[in-house]
Design goal:
heterodimer; A: 4 helices; 26% helix; B: seven-stranded antiparallel beta sheet; elongated
Protein backbone atom coordinates (compact mmCIF):
# COMPACT_ATOMS: atom_id res chain seq x y z
CA UNK A 1 0.00 0.00 0.00
CA UNK A 2 1.27 3.45 -0.90
CA UNK A 3 1.19 6.17 1.77
CA UNK A 4 0.35 9.82 1.04
CA UNK A 5 3.83 10.81 2.29
CA UNK A 6 5.45 8.69 -0.45
CA UNK A 7 3.81 10.88 -3.10
CA UNK A 8 3.47 14.28 -1.40
CA UNK A 9 6.46 16.53 -0.85
CA UNK A 10 5.23 17.53 2.60
CA UNK A 11 2.12 17.33 4.77
CA UNK A 12 1.76 19.91 7.56
CA UNK A 13 -0.99 20.85 10.00
CA UNK A 14 -1.50 23.81 12.30
CA UNK A 15 -4.26 25.56 14.19
CA UNK A 16 -6.09 28.24 12.24
CA UNK A 17 -7.06 30.11 15.40
CA UNK A 18 -8.07 28.28 18.59
CA UNK A 19 -11.19 26.74 17.05
CA UNK A 20 -9.95 25.33 13.74
CA UNK A 21 -7.16 23.16 12.43
CA UNK A 22 -5.92 23.08 8.86
CA UNK A 23 -3.94 20.39 7.04
CA UNK A 24 -1.94 21.27 3.92
CA UNK A 25 -0.77 18.58 1.50
CA UNK A 26 2.09 19.96 -0.62
CA UNK A 27 2.25 17.65 -3.62
CA UNK A 28 5.33 19.20 -5.23
CA UNK A 29 4.53 18.39 -8.87
CA UNK A 30 1.43 18.55 -11.08
CA UNK A 31 1.63 14.76 -11.48
CA UNK A 32 1.63 14.16 -7.72
CA UNK A 33 -1.13 16.74 -7.34
CA UNK A 34 -3.38 15.05 -9.89
CA UNK A 35 -2.78 11.66 -8.34
CA UNK A 36 -3.47 12.79 -4.76
CA UNK A 37 -6.36 15.07 -5.71
CA UNK A 38 -8.07 12.03 -7.24
CA UNK A 39 -7.06 9.51 -4.61
CA UNK A 40 -7.84 11.51 -1.45
CA UNK A 41 -11.52 11.05 -0.70
CA UNK A 42 -13.06 13.77 1.44
CA UNK A 43 -15.09 11.29 3.49
CA UNK A 44 -12.00 9.17 4.21
CA UNK A 45 -10.07 12.21 5.40
CA UNK A 46 -13.03 13.24 7.56
CA UNK A 47 -13.14 9.75 9.08
CA UNK A 48 -9.38 9.89 9.76
CA UNK A 49 -9.98 12.96 11.94
CA UNK A 50 -13.27 11.65 13.40
CA UNK A 51 -15.14 14.52 11.71
CA UNK A 52 -18.53 14.57 9.99
CA UNK A 53 -17.83 15.00 6.26
CA UNK A 54 -19.99 18.14 6.03
CA UNK A 55 -17.72 19.97 8.49
CA UNK A 56 -14.58 19.35 6.43
CA UNK A 57 -13.66 22.20 4.07
CA UNK A 58 -11.57 21.08 1.12
CA UNK A 59 -9.54 23.23 -1.28
CA UNK A 60 -7.86 21.73 -4.34
CA UNK A 61 -5.36 24.35 -5.52
CA UNK A 62 -3.65 23.34 -8.79
CA UNK A 63 -1.66 26.60 -9.00
CA UNK A 64 0.21 25.56 -5.85
CA UNK A 65 -0.08 21.78 -6.25
CA UNK A 66 -1.70 21.85 -2.83
CA UNK A 67 -4.72 20.11 -1.34
CA UNK A 68 -5.96 21.74 1.87
CA UNK A 69 -8.40 20.46 4.48
CA UNK A 70 -9.81 22.59 7.33
CA UNK A 71 -12.19 21.55 10.08
CA UNK A 72 -13.31 22.70 13.53
CA UNK A 73 -11.13 21.32 16.30
CA UNK A 74 -13.02 18.53 18.10
CA UNK A 75 -11.47 19.95 21.27
CA UNK A 76 -10.83 23.70 21.54
CA UNK A 77 -7.15 24.58 21.74
CA UNK A 78 -5.97 24.50 25.34
CA UNK A 79 -9.05 22.75 26.76
CA UNK A 80 -8.06 20.30 29.48
CA UNK A 81 -8.51 17.38 27.10
CA UNK A 82 -6.50 18.94 24.26
CA UNK A 83 -3.46 16.80 23.48
CA UNK A 84 -1.67 18.92 20.91
CA UNK A 85 -1.73 22.67 21.59
CA UNK A 86 -0.65 23.62 18.04
CA UNK A 87 -2.36 20.80 16.15
CA UNK A 88 0.90 20.26 14.31
CA UNK A 89 1.15 16.49 14.86
CA UNK A 90 -2.24 15.89 13.27
CA UNK A 91 -0.55 16.02 9.88
CA UNK A 92 1.01 12.61 10.54
CA UNK A 93 -2.37 10.89 10.24
CA UNK A 94 -2.85 12.16 6.69
CA UNK A 95 0.82 11.64 5.77
CA UNK A 96 0.56 7.98 6.85
CA UNK A 97 -2.82 7.37 5.23
CA UNK A 98 -2.82 4.47 2.79
CA UNK A 99 -4.14 5.07 -0.70
CA UNK B 1 1.03 57.54 -2.41
CA UNK B 2 3.40 54.53 -2.45
CA UNK B 3 4.13 53.26 1.06
CA UNK B 4 7.08 51.21 2.21
CA UNK B 5 6.73 49.10 5.38
CA UNK B 6 9.62 47.29 7.06
CA UNK B 7 8.79 44.14 9.04
CA UNK B 8 11.74 43.02 11.21
CA UNK B 9 10.32 39.55 11.92
CA UNK B 10 7.15 37.55 12.40
CA UNK B 11 7.04 38.26 16.11
CA UNK B 12 9.13 40.17 18.62
CA UNK B 13 11.42 37.69 20.47
CA UNK B 14 11.96 35.32 17.53
CA UNK B 15 15.11 37.21 16.51
CA UNK B 16 16.04 38.91 13.24
CA UNK B 17 19.02 39.29 10.95
CA UNK B 18 20.65 42.57 12.10
CA UNK B 19 22.39 43.24 8.79
CA UNK B 20 19.10 42.79 6.96
CA UNK B 21 17.40 45.16 9.41
CA UNK B 22 20.11 47.77 8.79
CA UNK B 23 19.62 47.31 5.05
CA UNK B 24 15.90 47.86 5.54
CA UNK B 25 16.45 51.07 7.50
CA UNK B 26 18.75 52.35 4.74
CA UNK B 27 15.93 51.76 2.23
CA UNK B 28 13.93 54.52 3.94
CA UNK B 29 10.70 52.79 5.03
CA UNK B 30 7.65 54.85 6.01
CA UNK B 31 6.90 52.61 8.99
CA UNK B 32 8.43 49.75 10.98
CA UNK B 33 5.82 47.22 12.16
CA UNK B 34 6.16 44.06 14.20
CA UNK B 35 3.70 41.62 15.70
CA UNK B 36 3.92 40.83 19.40
CA UNK B 37 1.89 37.66 19.65
CA UNK B 38 -1.10 35.54 18.69
CA UNK B 39 -3.25 32.77 20.13
CA UNK B 40 -0.81 30.16 18.73
CA UNK B 41 0.55 28.98 22.03
CA UNK B 42 -2.75 28.60 23.80
CA UNK B 43 -5.03 30.38 26.27
CA UNK B 44 -2.58 30.88 29.15
CA UNK B 45 -1.23 34.26 28.04
CA UNK B 46 -4.67 35.82 27.62
CA UNK B 47 -6.00 34.14 30.74
CA UNK B 48 -3.13 35.33 32.91
CA UNK B 49 -2.58 38.65 31.07
CA UNK B 50 1.14 37.92 30.72
CA UNK B 51 3.63 37.60 27.88
CA UNK B 52 4.94 34.11 27.22
CA UNK B 53 8.31 35.55 26.22
CA UNK B 54 11.22 36.48 28.47
CA UNK B 55 11.33 40.14 29.51
CA UNK B 56 15.09 40.21 28.88
CA UNK B 57 14.68 39.09 25.24
CA UNK B 58 11.73 41.43 24.70
CA UNK B 59 13.72 44.38 26.01
CA UNK B 60 16.89 43.49 24.10
CA UNK B 61 15.11 43.14 20.74
CA UNK B 62 12.91 46.20 21.36
CA UNK B 63 16.07 48.20 22.07
CA UNK B 64 17.38 47.34 18.60
CA UNK B 65 14.07 48.29 17.00
CA UNK B 66 13.95 51.58 18.92
CA UNK B 67 17.43 52.37 17.60
CA UNK B 68 16.33 51.43 14.07
CA UNK B 69 13.28 53.71 14.46
CA UNK B 70 15.43 56.64 15.60
CA UNK B 71 17.71 56.18 12.60
CA UNK B 72 14.84 55.81 10.12
CA UNK B 73 12.90 58.69 11.69
CA UNK B 74 9.56 56.92 11.18
CA UNK B 75 6.98 55.40 13.54
CA UNK B 76 7.51 51.99 15.11
CA UNK B 77 4.36 49.94 15.78
CA UNK B 78 3.93 46.75 17.76
CA UNK B 79 0.61 44.89 17.62
CA UNK B 80 -0.75 42.23 19.99
CA UNK B 81 1.80 43.31 22.55
CA UNK B 82 2.95 40.73 25.07
CA UNK B 83 1.58 37.64 23.23
CA UNK B 84 -2.12 38.27 23.94
CA UNK B 85 -2.55 42.05 23.75
CA UNK B 86 -4.30 42.36 27.12
CA UNK B 87 -4.18 45.78 28.77
CA UNK B 88 -1.67 44.53 31.38
CA UNK B 89 0.69 43.57 28.53
CA UNK B 90 0.44 47.04 26.98
CA UNK B 91 1.39 48.52 30.36
CA UNK B 92 4.29 46.03 30.67
CA UNK B 93 5.61 46.99 27.24
CA UNK B 94 5.18 50.70 28.02
CA UNK B 95 7.31 50.24 31.14
CA UNK B 96 10.03 48.50 29.07
CA UNK B 97 9.85 51.31 26.49
CA UNK B 98 10.21 53.98 29.18
CA UNK B 99 13.28 52.22 30.59
CA UNK B 100 14.83 52.03 27.13
CA UNK B 101 14.00 55.66 26.31
CA UNK B 102 15.89 56.63 29.42
CA UNK B 103 18.85 54.31 28.70
CA UNK B 104 19.07 55.41 25.05
CA UNK B 105 18.46 59.10 25.73
CA UNK B 106 15.44 59.22 23.40
CA UNK B 107 12.58 61.73 23.64
CA UNK B 108 9.44 60.05 22.40
CA UNK B 109 5.73 60.42 21.91
CA UNK B 110 4.24 57.04 22.77
CA UNK B 111 0.68 56.06 21.92
CA UNK B 112 -0.87 53.14 23.78
CA UNK B 113 -3.87 51.50 22.15
CA UNK B 114 -5.86 49.40 24.62
CA UNK B 115 -8.03 46.55 23.30
CA UNK B 116 -9.26 45.19 26.64
CA UNK B 117 -13.03 44.92 27.03
CA UNK B 118 -14.87 45.29 30.34
CA UNK B 119 -17.25 42.32 30.73
CA UNK B 120 -20.13 44.78 31.25
CA UNK B 121 -19.63 46.27 27.77
CA UNK B 122 -19.81 42.83 26.17
CA UNK B 123 -22.77 41.82 28.32
CA UNK B 124 -24.65 44.95 27.22
CA UNK B 125 -23.74 44.32 23.59
CA UNK B 126 -24.93 40.71 23.93
CA UNK B 127 -28.28 41.91 25.29
CA UNK B 128 -28.50 44.44 22.44
CA UNK B 129 -27.92 41.70 19.84
CA UNK B 130 -24.59 43.18 18.75
CA UNK B 131 -22.53 40.06 19.48
CA UNK B 132 -22.58 37.42 16.74
CA UNK B 133 -21.19 33.90 17.08
CA UNK B 134 -18.62 32.54 14.62
CA UNK B 135 -18.37 28.82 13.87
CA UNK B 136 -17.89 27.06 16.25
CA UNK B 137 -18.71 29.35 19.15
CA UNK B 138 -18.88 28.49 22.86
CA UNK B 139 -22.14 29.38 24.59
CA UNK B 140 -21.91 32.71 26.37
CA UNK B 141 -24.00 34.50 28.97
CA UNK B 142 -23.62 37.34 31.44
CA UNK B 143 -22.30 34.74 33.93
CA UNK B 144 -19.64 33.25 31.64
CA UNK B 145 -18.55 36.72 30.52
CA UNK B 146 -18.14 37.82 34.14
CA UNK B 147 -15.88 34.79 34.75
CA UNK B 148 -13.41 35.72 32.03
CA UNK B 149 -10.11 37.08 33.30
CA UNK B 150 -9.46 38.97 30.06
CA UNK B 151 -11.55 39.86 27.04
CA UNK B 152 -9.91 41.63 24.10
CA UNK B 153 -11.19 42.90 20.77
CA UNK B 154 -8.99 42.66 17.70
CA UNK B 155 -8.28 46.17 16.45
CA UNK B 156 -8.17 46.78 12.71
CA UNK B 157 -6.64 49.44 10.49
CA UNK B 158 -8.84 52.29 11.78
CA UNK B 159 -7.62 52.04 15.37
CA UNK B 160 -3.96 51.82 14.30
CA UNK B 161 -4.50 54.85 12.06
CA UNK B 162 -5.94 56.75 15.02
CA UNK B 163 -2.83 55.88 17.03
CA UNK B 164 -0.49 56.91 14.20
CA UNK B 165 -2.40 60.15 13.70
CA UNK B 166 -1.45 61.30 17.20
CA UNK B 167 2.01 61.83 15.73
CA UNK B 168 3.37 58.97 17.84
CA UNK B 169 6.96 57.82 17.42
CA UNK B 170 6.01 54.48 18.93
CA UNK B 171 2.62 52.77 19.00
CA UNK B 172 2.18 50.04 21.59
CA UNK B 173 -1.04 48.30 20.61
CA UNK B 174 -2.99 45.70 22.51
CA UNK B 175 -4.75 42.96 20.55
CA UNK B 176 -4.88 43.75 16.83
CA UNK B 177 -5.32 41.56 13.80
CA UNK B 178 -1.91 40.39 12.60
CA UNK B 179 -2.34 42.41 9.41
CA UNK B 180 -3.75 45.71 10.74
CA UNK B 181 -0.43 47.14 11.94
CA UNK B 182 1.00 46.76 8.42
CA UNK B 183 -2.11 47.62 6.37
CA UNK B 184 -3.10 50.76 8.32
CA UNK B 185 -0.62 53.21 6.78
CA UNK B 186 -0.94 52.19 3.10
CA UNK B 187 -4.74 52.30 3.50
CA UNK B 188 -4.59 55.78 5.00
CA UNK B 189 -2.36 56.97 2.17
CA UNK B 190 -4.83 55.73 -0.43
CA UNK B 191 -2.94 52.70 -1.73
CA UNK B 192 -4.92 49.81 -3.19
CA UNK B 193 -7.04 48.37 -0.38
CA UNK B 194 -6.88 44.74 -1.52
CA UNK B 195 -3.11 45.02 -1.91
CA UNK B 196 -2.77 46.67 1.51
CA UNK B 197 -4.47 43.79 3.31
CA UNK B 198 -2.95 41.09 1.16
CA UNK B 199 0.59 42.46 1.41
CA UNK B 200 0.11 42.76 5.15
CA UNK B 201 -1.03 39.14 5.40
CA UNK B 202 1.96 37.97 3.38
CA UNK B 203 4.43 39.94 5.51
CA UNK B 204 2.92 39.45 8.97
CA UNK B 205 4.96 36.32 9.66
CA UNK B 206 8.17 38.00 8.48
CA UNK B 207 10.32 35.86 6.22
CA UNK B 208 7.98 32.87 6.43
CA UNK B 209 6.75 34.00 2.99
CA UNK B 210 10.30 33.64 1.58
CA UNK B 211 12.61 30.77 0.75
CA UNK B 212 14.55 31.39 3.99
CA UNK B 213 11.85 31.42 6.70
CA UNK B 214 14.16 32.09 9.67
CA UNK B 215 15.87 35.17 8.23
CA UNK B 216 13.19 37.53 9.55
CA UNK B 217 13.29 40.84 7.77
CA UNK B 218 10.79 41.66 5.00
CA UNK B 219 10.08 44.87 3.08
CA UNK B 220 6.75 45.54 1.38
CA UNK B 221 6.06 48.32 -1.13
CA UNK B 222 2.38 49.21 -1.49
CA UNK B 223 1.01 51.30 -4.36
CA UNK B 224 -2.18 52.12 -6.27
CA UNK B 225 -2.36 48.73 -8.00
CA UNK B 226 -0.62 46.12 -5.92
CA UNK B 227 2.28 45.31 -3.64
CA UNK B 228 5.83 44.08 -4.00
CA UNK B 229 7.45 41.96 -1.31
CA UNK B 230 11.18 41.56 -0.81
CA UNK B 231 13.16 39.63 1.80
CA UNK B 232 16.22 41.52 3.00
CA UNK B 233 18.45 38.69 4.21
CA UNK B 234 21.25 37.71 1.84
CA UNK B 235 20.30 34.69 -0.24
CA UNK B 236 16.58 34.79 0.61
CA UNK B 237 13.97 35.25 -2.08
CA UNK B 238 10.23 35.75 -2.33
CA UNK B 239 8.97 33.70 -5.27
CA UNK B 240 5.40 33.65 -6.60
CA UNK B 241 5.14 30.18 -5.04
CA UNK B 242 6.54 31.09 -1.59
CA UNK B 243 4.33 34.20 -1.48
CA UNK B 244 1.08 32.65 -2.67
CA UNK B 245 1.63 29.54 -0.52
CA UNK B 246 1.77 31.74 2.58
CA UNK B 247 -1.99 32.33 2.32
CA UNK B 248 -2.35 28.67 3.37
CA UNK B 249 -0.57 29.20 6.66
CA UNK B 250 -2.75 29.07 9.78
CA UNK B 251 -5.69 30.02 7.58
CA UNK B 252 -8.76 27.81 7.30
CA UNK B 253 -9.61 29.36 3.92
CA UNK B 254 -6.61 30.18 1.70
CA UNK B 255 -8.48 32.75 -0.42
CA UNK B 256 -10.53 34.73 2.09
CA UNK B 257 -9.39 36.66 5.14
CA UNK B 258 -11.88 38.47 7.40
CA UNK B 259 -10.85 41.80 8.91
CA UNK B 260 -12.76 44.55 10.71
CA UNK B 261 -14.99 46.19 8.11
CA UNK B 262 -14.79 43.62 5.35
CA UNK B 263 -12.79 40.80 3.88
CA UNK B 264 -9.87 40.19 1.56
CA UNK B 265 -10.41 37.97 -1.48
CA UNK B 266 -7.27 36.72 -3.28
CA UNK B 267 -9.03 34.37 -5.70
CA UNK B 268 -8.05 36.53 -8.68
CA UNK B 269 -4.60 37.61 -7.51
CA UNK B 270 -1.76 37.39 -10.02
CA UNK B 271 1.77 36.84 -8.72
CA UNK B 272 4.78 37.87 -10.82
CA UNK B 273 8.48 37.38 -10.14
CA UNK B 274 10.16 40.77 -10.72
CA UNK B 275 13.61 39.23 -10.44
CA UNK B 276 15.11 36.39 -8.43
CA UNK B 277 14.30 38.09 -5.14
CA UNK B 278 11.09 40.16 -5.34
CA UNK B 279 7.53 39.15 -6.15
CA UNK B 280 4.69 41.47 -7.13
CA UNK B 281 1.00 40.74 -6.60
CA UNK B 282 -1.96 42.50 -8.18
CA UNK B 283 -5.67 41.77 -8.45
CA UNK B 284 -6.35 41.21 -4.75
CA UNK B 285 -9.79 42.44 -3.80
CA UNK B 286 -11.09 44.15 -0.66
CA UNK B 287 -14.81 43.58 -0.13
CA UNK B 288 -16.33 46.03 2.39
CA UNK B 289 -18.81 44.64 4.92
CA UNK B 290 -20.37 45.48 8.29
CA UNK B 291 -17.92 46.87 10.84
CA UNK B 292 -17.26 44.10 13.33
CA UNK B 293 -14.27 43.28 15.52
CA UNK B 294 -13.45 39.77 16.63
CA UNK B 295 -13.44 39.03 20.35
CA UNK B 296 -11.16 36.74 22.32
CA UNK B 297 -11.69 35.81 25.95
CA UNK B 298 -10.22 33.38 28.42
CA UNK B 299 -11.37 32.12 31.77
CA UNK B 300 -9.95 29.91 34.48
CA UNK B 301 -11.25 26.36 34.16
CA UNK B 302 -9.78 24.96 37.34
CA UNK B 303 -6.27 24.26 38.59
CA UNK B 304 -3.95 21.44 37.68
CA UNK B 305 -1.41 19.09 39.21
CA UNK B 306 0.57 16.62 37.11
CA UNK B 307 2.58 13.49 37.83
CA UNK B 308 4.75 11.41 35.53
CA UNK B 309 5.74 7.78 35.97
CA UNK B 310 7.68 5.72 33.43
CA UNK B 311 6.85 2.08 32.79
CA UNK B 312 9.88 0.07 31.57
CA UNK B 313 8.87 -3.44 32.64
CA UNK B 314 7.89 -5.19 29.37
CA UNK B 315 4.71 -6.71 30.81
CA UNK B 316 3.47 -3.30 31.95
CA UNK B 317 4.55 -1.63 28.71
CA UNK B 318 2.52 -4.18 26.74
CA UNK B 319 -0.53 -3.64 28.99
CA UNK B 320 -0.16 0.08 29.65
CA UNK B 321 -3.68 1.06 28.59
CA UNK B 322 -5.35 -1.67 30.63
CA UNK B 323 -3.17 -0.74 33.61
CA UNK B 324 -4.03 2.96 33.32
CA UNK B 325 -7.76 2.23 32.96
CA UNK B 326 -7.71 -0.02 36.04
CA UNK B 327 -5.70 2.51 38.06
CA UNK B 328 -8.11 5.27 37.00
CA UNK B 329 -11.07 3.30 38.39
CA UNK B 330 -9.19 2.51 41.57
CA UNK B 331 -8.27 6.18 42.13
CA UNK B 332 -11.86 7.31 41.54
CA UNK B 333 -13.10 4.94 44.24
CA UNK B 334 -10.29 5.95 46.60
CA UNK B 335 -11.06 9.66 46.10
CA UNK B 336 -14.73 8.99 46.87
CA UNK B 337 -13.86 6.97 49.97
CA UNK B 338 -11.04 9.05 51.47
CA UNK B 339 -11.90 12.55 50.29
CA UNK B 340 -15.68 12.22 49.82
CA UNK B 341 -15.39 14.19 46.58
CA UNK B 342 -18.14 14.38 43.99
CA UNK B 343 -16.74 12.95 40.69
CA UNK B 344 -17.94 16.10 38.88
CA UNK B 345 -15.59 18.28 40.94
CA UNK B 346 -12.33 16.87 39.59
CA UNK B 347 -10.93 15.21 36.47
CA UNK B 348 -8.18 12.61 36.04
CA UNK B 349 -6.63 12.28 32.58
CA UNK B 350 -4.03 9.61 31.81
CA UNK B 351 -1.81 10.30 28.78
CA UNK B 352 0.29 7.34 27.66
CA UNK B 353 3.45 8.73 26.07
CA UNK B 354 4.66 6.11 23.63
CA UNK B 355 1.11 4.89 22.92
CA UNK B 356 -1.25 7.71 21.91
CA UNK B 357 -0.41 10.83 23.94
CA UNK B 358 -0.47 13.20 20.94
CA UNK B 359 -3.50 11.93 19.05
CA UNK B 360 -5.66 10.10 21.60
CA UNK B 361 -8.62 8.32 20.04
CA UNK B 362 -7.55 9.40 16.54
CA UNK B 363 -4.33 7.36 16.82
CA UNK B 364 -4.49 4.45 14.38
CA UNK B 365 -1.05 2.94 14.78
CA UNK B 366 0.27 0.58 17.41
CA UNK B 367 3.88 -0.18 18.12
CA UNK B 368 6.10 -1.86 20.61
CA UNK B 369 7.65 0.96 22.61
CA UNK B 370 10.63 0.29 24.87
CA UNK B 371 8.96 2.25 27.65
CA UNK B 372 5.75 4.19 28.23
CA UNK B 373 5.52 7.52 30.00
CA UNK B 374 2.36 7.88 32.06
CA UNK B 375 1.37 11.51 32.46
CA UNK B 376 -1.43 11.97 34.94
CA UNK B 377 -3.12 15.36 34.65
CA UNK B 378 -5.40 16.26 37.56
CA UNK B 379 -7.83 19.17 37.22
CA UNK B 380 -9.81 20.41 40.23
CA UNK B 381 -11.55 23.55 41.44
CA UNK B 382 -8.66 24.77 43.56
CA UNK B 383 -4.90 24.23 43.48
CA UNK B 384 -5.05 22.83 47.01
CA UNK B 385 -7.57 20.21 45.91
CA UNK B 386 -5.64 19.25 42.76
CA UNK B 387 -2.48 18.97 44.83
CA UNK B 388 -4.23 16.86 47.47
CA UNK B 389 -5.51 14.46 44.77
CA UNK B 390 -1.95 14.30 43.43
CA UNK B 391 -0.68 13.20 46.83
CA UNK B 392 -3.45 10.63 47.07
CA UNK B 393 -2.53 9.25 43.63
CA UNK B 394 1.23 9.29 44.17
CA UNK B 395 1.84 5.89 45.88
CA UNK B 396 -0.53 4.12 43.50
CA UNK B 397 0.98 5.59 40.36
CA UNK B 398 4.27 4.26 41.74
CA UNK B 399 3.17 0.77 42.83
CA UNK B 400 -0.19 -0.18 41.34
CA UNK B 401 -0.19 -3.87 40.27
CA UNK B 402 -1.98 -5.27 37.23
CA UNK B 403 -3.03 -8.40 39.13
CA UNK B 404 -3.73 -9.16 42.76
CA UNK B 405 -1.26 -12.01 43.19
CA UNK B 406 2.01 -10.38 42.26
CA UNK B 407 4.80 -8.67 44.09
CA UNK B 408 4.21 -4.91 44.18
CA UNK B 409 5.86 -3.28 41.17
CA UNK B 410 7.71 0.03 41.46
CA UNK B 411 7.83 2.25 38.39
CA UNK B 412 10.26 5.07 37.60
CA UNK B 413 9.52 8.53 38.98
CA UNK B 414 11.80 11.08 37.31
CA UNK B 415 12.05 13.45 40.30
CA UNK B 416 10.97 14.09 43.87
CA UNK B 417 8.36 15.19 44.68
CA UNK B 418 6.69 13.36 41.80
CA UNK B 419 3.96 15.94 41.51
CA UNK B 420 4.06 19.42 39.98
CA UNK B 421 1.43 22.05 40.63
CA UNK B 422 0.68 23.85 37.35
CA UNK B 423 -1.49 26.66 38.62
CA UNK B 424 -4.62 27.82 36.83
CA UNK B 425 -5.84 26.17 33.65
CA UNK B 426 -7.30 28.74 31.28
CA UNK B 427 -9.55 28.09 28.32
CA UNK B 428 -10.66 30.16 25.33
CA UNK B 429 -14.28 31.07 25.87
CA UNK B 430 -15.20 33.40 23.00
CA UNK B 431 -15.34 33.00 19.23
CA UNK B 432 -17.61 35.92 18.44
CA UNK B 433 -17.63 39.31 16.75
CA UNK B 434 -18.80 42.63 18.15
CA UNK B 435 -20.63 45.12 15.90
CA UNK B 436 -19.43 48.70 16.21
CA UNK B 437 -20.79 51.95 14.76
CA UNK B 438 -17.63 53.85 15.64
CA UNK B 439 -14.44 51.75 15.35
CA UNK B 440 -12.85 53.57 18.30
CA UNK B 441 -15.82 53.06 20.64
CA UNK B 442 -14.41 49.79 22.02
CA UNK B 443 -10.77 50.94 22.13
CA UNK B 444 -8.85 53.43 24.26
CA UNK B 445 -5.92 55.58 23.19
CA UNK B 446 -3.43 57.18 25.59
CA UNK B 447 -0.60 59.43 24.44
CA UNK B 448 2.44 60.14 26.62
CA UNK B 449 5.51 62.29 26.01
CA UNK B 450 8.56 60.52 27.39
CA UNK B 451 11.83 62.32 27.95
CA UNK B 452 15.05 60.64 29.05
Amino acid sequence: MTQVSEIAYKVRSKNAGPFWVTVDVFCGTPEAYTRLSDALKTEEVAALYHQPTQLLKRFDIPDLNVIKFSFPRPVIQGHRSDRDMHGAQWATLLAEMSL
Amino acid sequence: MPTRVLIPSGVLCLGFDREALARGVAMKPDLIAIDGGSTDSGPWSLGAGQSKYARSVTKSEWRELMLARAEAGVPLVIGTTGTCGADACVDWMFEITQELASELGQSLRIARLYSGQPAARITDALAAGRIKPLTPAPEISAETLAEMTNIVALAGAEQIQAALNTGADIVIAGRTTDTAIIAALPLQRGDHAGAAWHGAKIAECGALCSTNPTSGVILVDFDAEGFTVEPLATGASCTPHSVSAHMLYENSDPFILYEPGGHLDVTQTRYTALDGVRTRATGSKWVPGPYTVKLEGARAAGFQTTLIAVLRDAHYVANAQAWADKLHGFLDSLIARRMALDPASYNLDFRLIGVNAALGEMENRTGQPVEVGVLLIITAKTQALASEIGKLANPHLLHYPLTANEELPTFAFPYSPAQSDRGALYEFALNHVLELDDPMSAFRLTVTEVTP
